[in-house]
TrEMBL record:
Source organism of this protein record: Paracoccus simplex
PANTHER family: MLTA-INTERACTING PROTEIN-RELATED (PTHR38776)
Family to which this protein belongs: Belongs to the MipA/OmpV family.
Highest rank taxon of the organism: Bacteria
Cross-referenced InterPro entries: MipA
Keyword set includes Membrane: yes
The entry's keywords: Cell outer membrane, Membrane, Signal
One Pfam family matching this protein: MipA
Cell compartments where the protein resides: Cell outer membrane
Protein name: MipA/OmpV family protein
Signal peptide: 1-21
Length: 244
C-alpha cells in the first residue's frame, strides 16, 4: 500500500509541475511559522492529554489570493519521544526517540476548497513512510479572521505502525503486553477546525481543535488505551513571504 500511495502522489506531482511553471512568472511562496502549546494525548493511543510545544509551520496553500489549481509544497512533521518509564501502562516497552518527517505535499485548490495528499519519510524515532489524504474548506469571516474545517485520513507503513503500535516478543516478556505486529495502512481519521486571527500585519493568533479516531490494526493494539485522540492547540505565528 505504501508503494501505491507514493507512486500516485509522485506521479501527480510530476504531471502538475510543468503546468505550474508555465502559469507563474514571478513565483511567491508564503507560510505561517511560529510557536505555541498543544494539548494532546501523552503518546499515540493514550487517554490522557499532556501539554507540549506546537511548532507552527502551515497554511502555505491557503492564501486568499492564491490561484486555483495544483501546487507542490514541502511537507514536514515531527513526533515527540515516548519514554516508557514515564507511563505505567508502557513499562517494559522500548523507548522511542523524537522523529522527524520530510516529504512532499500535492494540493489542488478549487475556490474555497483545497484537497491534498502528502507523503513523508521518517528519521530518528521511526523510519517508516507516512502520509495523509484530506480536504479543507476555507471561510473568510473578516479581513483579519480566517477559519478552516478539514477532514483527513492518516496512513503509515508497517515500519511506522510497528514502531508506535507494535509489541515485539522481547517487549512482551518485559511488559506483559501480548506480542503484536500491526500491518500498515490507514491508521487514523481526523476532523479539525482551525482559526487564524491577524491582530498585527503578518502576525496572527492561531488556534486548532482536532478529533482523531484510531483505525484498524492501530486501534486494536494492546498499547492503545482509547481510540479517541483529541487535541487543542494555540499559538502565535508570523507570515513569511518569499519571491523567486
Amino acid at each position: 500500500m505504501t508503494r501505491m500511495i507514493a507512486f500516485a502522489l509522485l506521479s501527480a506531482t510530476a504531471l502538475s509541475t510543468p503546468v505550474m511553471a508555465e502559469s507563474l512568472g514571478e513565483r511567491e511562496f508564503s507560510f505561517d511559522a511560529g510557536l505555541g502549546v498543544k494539548y494532546s494525548p501523552e503518546f499515540i493511543g493514550s487517554d490522557n492529554l499532556d501539554p507540549s510545544p506546537w511548532f507552527i509551520l502551515r497554511n502555505a496553500d491557503a492564501d486568499r489570493d492564491k490561484p486555483d489549481g495544483f501546487s507542490v509544497l514541502p511537507s514536514l512533521n515531527y513526533v515527540g519521544k515516548r519514554d516508557a518509564d514515564d507511563y505505567d501502562d508502557l513499562r517494559g516497552m522500548d523507548d522511542i526517540g523524537y522523529a522527524g518527517e520530510i516529504g512532499v505535499k500535492l494540493s489542488y485548490r478549487m475556490g474555497e476548497l483545497t484537497s491534498y495528499g502528502a507523503i513523508r519519510k521518517g528519521f530518528g524515532g521511526h523510519h517508516g513512510v507516512v502520509g495523509e489524504l484530506g480536504a479543507k474548506y476555507r471561510f473568510e469571516a473578516s479581513d483579519k479572521l480566517t477559519l478552516w474545517t478539514g477532514a483527513e485520513l492518516g496512513m503509515g507503513s508497517d515500519d511506522f505502525t510497528g514502531t508506535y503500535f507494535g509489541v515485539t516478543a522481547d517487549e512482551s516478556l518485559s511488559s506483559g503486553h501480548r506480542a503484536y505486529d500491526p500491518d500498515g495502512g490507514a491508521y487514523i481519521a481526523r476532523l479539525s477546525v482551525e482559526a487564524r486571527y491577524e491582530f498585527l500585519p503578518d502576525t496572527a493568533l492561531m488556534g486548532r481543535v482536532t478529533y482523531g479516531r484510531l483505525l484498524g490494526d492501530a486501534g486494536d493494539s494492546p498499547l492503545v488505551e482509547t481510540r479517541n485522540q483529541p487535541s487543542i492547540s494555540i499559538g502565535v505565528a508570523r507570515r513569511l513571504n518569499f519571491r523567486f
